[in-house]
Amino acid sequence: MFGGSTKLATEGLMDWRNVIKIVKQHEVSKEHTNCQIVFLRRSNNVGRIDSDLCIQINNEIDYWKNVLKRVIAVIKKLGSRGLPFRGSVEKFGSQNNGNFMMCLELISEFDPFLSNHIVQHGNPGSGHTSYLSSTTCDEIITLMTTQVTNVIIKEIKSAKYFSIVIDSTPDISHTDQLAYVIRYVRDDGFPVERFMCFLPNIGHKSETLETAVLSFLTKHDIDINNCRGQSYDNAANMSGIYSGLQARIIKKNPYAYYVPCAAHSLNLVGTCVAECVKEGLSFFNTIKHLYSFFSASTRRWDILKSSLTLGKKVVKRADGTRWSARHEACDSLYQNYDGVIRNLSLLEEDNFEKAKTRCEAAGLRHQLDRFETVFMTVFWNAILESFNNTSKELQKNKYRFGKSCQTL
To answer: Within a 13 Å sphere around the CA of 29, how many CA atoms are in the beta-carbon half?
Structure first.
């Protein structure tokens, strides 16, 4: 039709065993390219017999692009807020279909296009194209992850020098995950920290951690010799000077200086200080018991809140991984010490309360009446306030030693 003179164009094909090879060779041939050019020119000059079909295909493409724009917008917003996507039921109209479908339903109330799409394609079941299923959602998230990672890797390579920050913790499903963070300076001179990925079930041995760290860098073609810093917690498998992860990395690159996590070091200082004094341990146990006592009963909690003056805090839980987290618990007791004692006295003398409750209230009141407890409240409140401010400052990704140390 377009002037082809090859055997494939004039006689056809009979060698079906090698059809793939023959067709591929024909598609890259000069004659096929010339025929394509003739086809395009003739299409532009006299039109095509399948022009209506082409219009229909383009309209179909635009339709699904508009669907994907809305789906991607919802995924970006949920991801930026760290919200879960799925619910227990993957069906539009259900109260348990999760945040992803809920957001699409909300948009459809003001968007006729999406509303009609959900009506026509919302719950057709598997095997039908809708672009609204969890499978499509997961695929889009994977594509977005790859794109974001590629941009970060490009920035790292442009900056050349970088530092690594590694830590592991179990998630809600009890899977140990290694968080991989890279810190570098962008071209505009601004230092940034980028979370790269979670590496599940790596283990806690320094050998396996080294393999995981180096494998990630190798996978993305990042040279370990350009690493200029590494920061971990103070665990032996990470900070060990002979066989810890930092020592193994330094063997690969002597310029990758190890800097212990300042916030973690501060936390260890607080833990050691509190545990080396018996009265300190007793004081924090009293705060824990005080919170448990009031929070175990809604009536007791209401009595406590009713006695608070405007702006005062209720008692807080004295738990948390960081010792600075105990600042809220200590500060709430410091601000409302007299009120807490009065409430304990009321509960102690309330004949309508159970004997166990009255006994607990009496024990806590006697503990708070002690001079040692009063002293520890004032003493630890002052220390933990500085602890809390310092801990928050150390955890900022824009933290700079020179400027921050002057303000602390």
So the answer is: 16
Phi, psi of 147 (to 5 degrees): -65, -45
Closest Cα to residue 366, out of 345, 387, 386, 384?
345
Return the half-sphere exposure (C-beta side, CA atoms, 13 A cut-off) of residue 193.
16
- For residue 183, give both structure tokens: 């810190």
CB 224 within 8 A of CB 252: yes
Query: What region, left, alpha or beta, does residue 221 occupy, with left being phi > 0 and alpha being psi -120 to 50 degrees?
Result: left
Mean pLDDT in consecutive groups of 10 residues from the start of the chain, 408 residues: 75 83 84 83 68 83 93 92 87 88 92 92 78 88 91 91 87 80 88 87 84 90 90 83 88 88 78 77 86 87 77 69 74 86 88 88 90 90 84 69 41
- The two structure tokens encoding residue 30: 């000069």
Three-state secondary structure call for residue 184? strand
- The contacts of residue 232 (CB under 8 Å, 6+ apart) are 165, 166, 167, 238, 239, 245, 246, 258, 260, 261
Give the number of C-alpha atoms closer than 13 A to the C-alpha of residue 105, restricted to the C-beta side.
15
What is the number of other CB atoms lying within 10 angstroms of the CB of residue 261?
19
